[in-house]
Amino acid sequence: YDPPKAAGAASPSKSRAVSSEIRAGIIGLGYIGGLHLRAAALVPGVRVVAIADPHAAAREAAPAGVERLADYRDLLERDLDFVTICLPTALHHPVALAALEAGRHVLIEKPVTATYAEAEDLMAAARARGRVLYTGMTHRFYPEIRAVRERLDQGEFGEVVMLRDCILESLGFLGGPAWYRDPAAAGGGTVLPSGLPLAARV
User: Fold this and answer.
1) Entry pTM
2) Beta-bridge mates of residue 22
3) CA distance linking residue 75 with residue 61, whole number of Å
4) Geometric angle at alpha carbon 20, from 134 and 81, rounded to 5°
């Protein structure tokens, strides 16, 4: 989906020749950012041209040919079509807003923001600038989830009055980033980042 461009909205460099290549930038190259990087490599026509991460070790992990930046604001000055944001939830709103204001389409990791008001603000900014803002709710695209959804829509199971689901995190993840277990940084602690996919499956 490519919404109509809003008047005055910034756009990728007009000097770049029109081509089928989609130029992407990744903000935050931790565990999830690494998954985005590998996923982008599997999509024909998409090329990650730059990553931004304040941690030197993360930048060094970027593959050859990808520009490595410490500040996401420098990344937003590059000639990009869209960015993916893979940061602690508390940083989603300011970084995504800056990306939208720079005229970039945005794929943002779940949860979209730490508060409902921040999410509404990003939606308004995307609409005003004619940009796509999408949250990476991958569970709803799992083949098994889509198959169940199709059977539900066909009425195969009758009327659904209750759903029960669960999600398990590897104990090894407890050694991961401290922000994931910090309610202020994660926007609700582990309940929101880990529990949100369950709601998205419904």
Assistant:
1) 0.79
2) 46
3) 17
4) 40
